[in-house]
Amino acid sequence: MLKFTDDHEWLKIENGVATVGITAHATEQLGDLVFVELPEAGAEFEMGDTAATLESVKAATDVYAPLAGEIVESNAAIVDDPAIVNADPMGKGWFFKLKLADPSAADALMDEDAYKALVG
Amino acid sequence: MSDTEILKTPLHALHLELGARMTPFAGYDMPVQYPPGILKEHLHTRAHAGLFDVSHMGQVVLRPKSGDLADAALALERLVPVDILGLAEGRQRYALFTNEAGGILDDLMVANRGDHLFVVVNAACKDADEAHLRAQLSDACEIERLDGRALLALQGPEAAAVLAAMAPESAEMRFMDVRALTLAGAACIVSRSGYSGEDGFEISVPDDAAVALARALLAHEAVEPIGLGARDSLRLEAGLCLYGSDLDPTTSPVEASLLWAMQKARRAGGVRAGGFPGAVRILDELANGASRRRVGLLPEGRAPVRGGAPIFAGEDDAEPIGTVTSGAFGPSLGGPMAMGYVPGDLAATGTRLFAEVRGKKLPVTVAAMPFVKSNYKRA
């Protein structure tokens, strides 16, 4: 199940665990990323908490926890090479895997068609 | 202009045609980046040549009422701690308008054009600078703001070859030379200078010829348009100050580590010592040092440290000892870099300090600038 947020994050949800990243639209707006700070496994977040920080050449941006849950894995590859996020935001550029506190809460997020309508 | 009206340079439509993302800067709608993005634009400028629209900057001509340029030079020396009288015809020099408190009102370039001085000032300060010049120098100078001229910067190791293809005599110019050249049929004032740390030129061109000249330059394979985003990372790698961030009316030239901009003639014991606003403080700081200094800072990790971040002497200290004034990721450096102000006794290269980013104190080391070796055409 693929879901999206107003903050241009995507969630691919399998067995109650959401792989989270930012959309191609978000990377186009941010420009070239030069630094990524990710949460450690075990960290717990409420929906809307700052879970990760991105820096482009120009500015810093927060990435929010799209739903409440616990981090089970972060993508070390994008910490070593943030350009992966720009090159493949919906694939190899994922940020973290979040074990959802309430998987049914994802129903309230946008599906792909609704997100495409949002970004035009 | 009204407070809400956004100004456009003569190249505005060209920026849109080239796909620029525009942003308001100093009252102008300016290109922050083009489709390749800041990182690629920055690296392209260091490897080939970049074309920058800096038409928002102010261009001012000072003509001596007496007809003798020395009178205009001596008049301008009343406002800057810089040797203008000693500036030879066809040469340009960096200068600073100071205030009575010894702070910096603006930084500028001054060129000796034979029968007049040609001054380029920052966009955000140009109205205040013009008023300052009129108030202080009208006894000796006719002051004319050149609002009908655009300003283009062509920067990078291939800039010289590109310009030589249009005007072969430009090859004879060295760093900080200024001369009149005809480019793409337009009468231009060209200086071999810029703000990227690279060899290059700044070109003052009449508004109605600016687009044709920009297109002619962009027609060269080596030249790409570069936005304000890369202009900022290039100047920071070159260790150059941005007025309003690294310099302001409370910062003195000695604090700002701009001692090189104040020649012997204007210092204590010089032939025209003092005689500029704030001379008491500035001459004292030249003799005895300033309480704080602008230094380069290299963060140890990959996290950029931005302007505004407080600086601490110790990791567990509660009270900051200084502030970062500019900070970014340096694409050519391959890591983060910053500059900021610290007490004089913590300004030595190699001093380890801490900058606070998102509540964490990150280690930074005081480092020599430029961060990336400059490539000016001095010989």
What does this 3D model show about the protein?
The complex is a heterodimer of chains A (120) and B (379). Chain A has 120 residues and is of the alpha+beta class. Chain A has one domain (2-101): RNA polymerase II/Efflux pump adaptor protein, barrel-sandwich hybrid domain (OB fold (Dihydrolipoamide Acetyltransferase, E2P)), CATH 2.40.50.100. Chain A is 21% helix and 38% strand. Chain A contains four helices and nine strands; from the N terminus they run E-E-E-H-E-E-E-E-E-H-H-E-H. In chain A, strands 1-2-3-9-8-5 form a six-stranded antiparallel β-sheet. Chain A starts with a strand and ends with a helix. Chain B has 379 residues and is of the alpha+beta class. Among the domains of chain B are: 12-52 and 148-237, 2-Layer Sandwich (Gyrase A, domain 2); 291-369, Beta Barrel (Elongation Factor Tu (Ef-tu), domain 3). Chain B contains eight helices and 19 strands. Chain B has helices at residues 12-17, 38-47, 69-77, 126-137, 159-166, 207-218, 228-237, 279-288; strands at 21-25, 28-33, 49-53, 58-64, 92-98, 104-112, 117-121, 141-145, 149-155, 178-183, 186-191, 200-206, 223-225, 292-299, 310-312, 322-330, 335-343, 352-357, 360-367. A six-stranded mixed β-sheet of chain B has the order 10-11-12-9-3-13, sandwiched between helices. In chain B, strands 14-17-16-15-18-19 form a six-stranded antiparallel β-barrel. A five-stranded antiparallel β-sheet of chain B has the order 5-6-7-4-8. In chain B, strand 11 (186-191) and strand 12 (200-206) form a beta hairpin. In chain B, helix 2 (38-47) packs across helix 7 (228-237). The longest helix of chain B has 12 residues, at 126-137. The mean pLDDT of chain B is 97. Chain A binds chain B through residues 31-32, 34-35, 37, 53, 55-60, and chain B through 32-33, 37-40, 42, 229, 232-233, 302-304, 306, 328-329, 331, 336, 358.
